[in-house]
Amino acid sequence: MSKSLQAIRGMNDILPEQTPLWRYFEGTVARLLDNYGYKQIRMPIVEFTELFKRSIGEVTDIVEKEMYTFEDRNGDSLTLRPEGTAACVRAVLEHGITGGGQVQKLWYIGPMFRHERPQKGRYRQFHQIGLEVFNLDGPDIDAELIIMTWRLWGELGIRDAVKLELNSLGTSESRGRYREALVEYLSAHHDKLDEDSQRRLKTNPLRVLDTKNADTQAVLVDAPKMADYLDDDSRAHFEGLKARLDAVGIPYVLNPKLVRGLDYYSKTVFEWVTDKLGAQGTVCAGGRYDGLVEQMGGKPTAGVGFAMGIERLVLMLETLEQIPEEISRQVDVYLCAFGEEAELAGLALAERVRDQLPNLRLQVNAGAGSFKSQFKKADKSGALYALILGDDEMAQQVVGFKPLRGQGEQQSIAWDALAAHLATCVVQG
């Protein structure tokens, strides 16, 4: 027997009963970003591998272990994008839309790919919404990104379940001085570090700070702090950010061990974390990357952004039961028609109603069937009301109107009055 076809491990189908919640989340974010003046950009899923090596850093876990890389028929090394910032920077450079100091406030949505160990909330194909802002170098835009997410959590009803963690990584120069001090300290405690941290000590020592190993965490208690090595400009920038968050009333926690997993960050870094999803606690993260555009061949350009994981945030909505009632109901009204003449009239009537109520979710029965079978399908659809069109209704040019949820008697509504009646009943329902 041949092996049955299955999806690749860690790459999941999003089934019809799941997509309404995804669409609700994505639509909520898109409306919010529109209101703040952000414009959508769409980049390819596949990029040249060199893009990610140059931007993310060759000694990061992503580049060393997690990227899906392959050669195409031309012999070029290509990679499924593991994150969106590098691709967005490549796009704005290629098309010259940040030249001359042009401010760009962009957002994107789509799948990312990393070969990680699949677990709840962490997948090999995962979906992100990301924002990138170019040519604004003050703490005010850093604050705007965080304020937007704070507003989003409020609209989604999950604000009480997330916590903001902040840190500043300073400039590359101040971070270099801190790196030297950290390496010196950790080298003196080398034998107490876990194996992964010993490896990182040689390649990417700042990543030792976010280790989950308890013994290494104990060593880090007395390690040098990044705040003691910040340059004056970075310190002033960080104080400006905190002042703006304080002014709006957004609570935050300073986390000196927050470094993020990518090499391109500088100054502000932040994470929104939760304790509602087990081990996968980060739902949104980002920061400033003022040197990245220049590193990738462009002119010095300020940059800041973040990405949020759709899977994790959808899971949070489910876990906290913050799902609007209308999301679980895909149909408002279900039209049952009995006999060919009624079916033809029903189609025409349904289209007239849709012309007048374009947001009404109206499903017309397909496949004919008895009175009992059609009503069974109407009930299964989750509709609030059933419309009935049979011989008697056809003769009187009315439609039967029957509530399917809660109280109410069946009544007859004239065809010309149906749209107005539905507008009232569905809104009230």
TrEMBL record:
The keyword ATP-binding applies. Transmembrane segments: none annotated. L-histidine binds at E83, G84, T85, R114, Q128, E132, R260, Y264, Y265. One of its GO terms (molecular function) is histidine-tRNA ligase activity. It is an enzyme of class 6 (ligase). InterPro entries: aa-tRNA-synth_II, aa-tRNA-synth_II/BPL/LPL, Anticodon-bd, Anticodon-bd_dom_sf, His-tRNA-ligase, HisRS-like_core, HisRS/HisZ, HisRS_anticodon. It catalyses: tRNA(His) + L-histidine + ATP = L-histidyl-tRNA(His) + AMP + diphosphate + H(+). Residues 1-358 form the Aminoacyl-transfer RNA synthetases class-II family profile domain. PROSITE patterns: AA_TRNA_LIGASE_II (PS50862). One of its GO terms (cellular component) is cytoplasm. Homodimer. HAMAP family: His_tRNA_synth. This is Histidine--tRNA ligase. It comes from Pseudomonas moraviensis.
